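Morning run. Coffee first, then this:
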Amino acid sequence: MPASLIRLFLIALLLPLFGGCASRGIPQTESTGEQAAARALLQKSAEAHGLAAFRQINDLNVGYAGEWYGLASRVQATLVDPEFRQGSQERILLKEPGTISQRHSGPLGSKQVVRTQNGVQVYYNDVPASNPDVLAAAALVADGYRLFLTGPFYFLDGNLSLETAASEDVEGRSCFTLVAVRRPGHGLSAEDRYQLFIDSENHLLRRVRFTMEGLASTQGAIAEVDFFDHQEIAGVIWPTRFYERLRKPIPNLPVHDWRLNGLDINRGLSESDISGKMFSPKAEAAAKPLPKR
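And here it is:
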């Protein structure tokens, strides 16, 4: 049986198990442009996370480790790629051209992803990959991880629309919410929608809910990531634990639980340091371990 049919079969079997769960999507926006109240709330969240310090960063050097949940790995094997994505070292250039490079590692070896404004390159154990689904999945993941790490900063520019929506609770904390539409979206998507959940007391971003239109097998799906255990590093408040679940088509399906285990800034990296099938010596050293709390 083809893999796509197996995925559909698994989903069909599981849907009745989740029939009593609320499958919340993302509210539809009513207009283009940014509402003044929505922009002010986003700005307040960015400032709470340390916007002034963030604007001084040229390059981010990040380390992650995490666990995938089994069903998600089977339903979306190309996207999850668990045999190569158990931990990663990532390098992000925040200034133009904004290149992202990820060195994933897993039981079968390494996976290097280079994401630029012009496209994406993938290398498995230093051998280039050309499968269109593999490339689309890698672009979606690279852009998504930048979104998750940088939170409200990601939405300061490039929104087709931004407006307020109904407040909701996240893990017992009351949150204001914003709905953003971006064109293009993340990955190779023409457009994606996002709902941001901003803590009503301290204005930290607690959750982001999003569509995933950049990969054929995830079109129509909605997922969300929760953010925990924030730490201040270099003047910026960063989340250090992330938990992803699916909202649609299988509500509340656990996908991924991962942790930020290293971060340092401003090594002086350039695009040439992170654009090949491996990092340059300047980029290669693991991200500095997080301060002990």
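The first helix runs from residue 3 to 14. Good start to the day.
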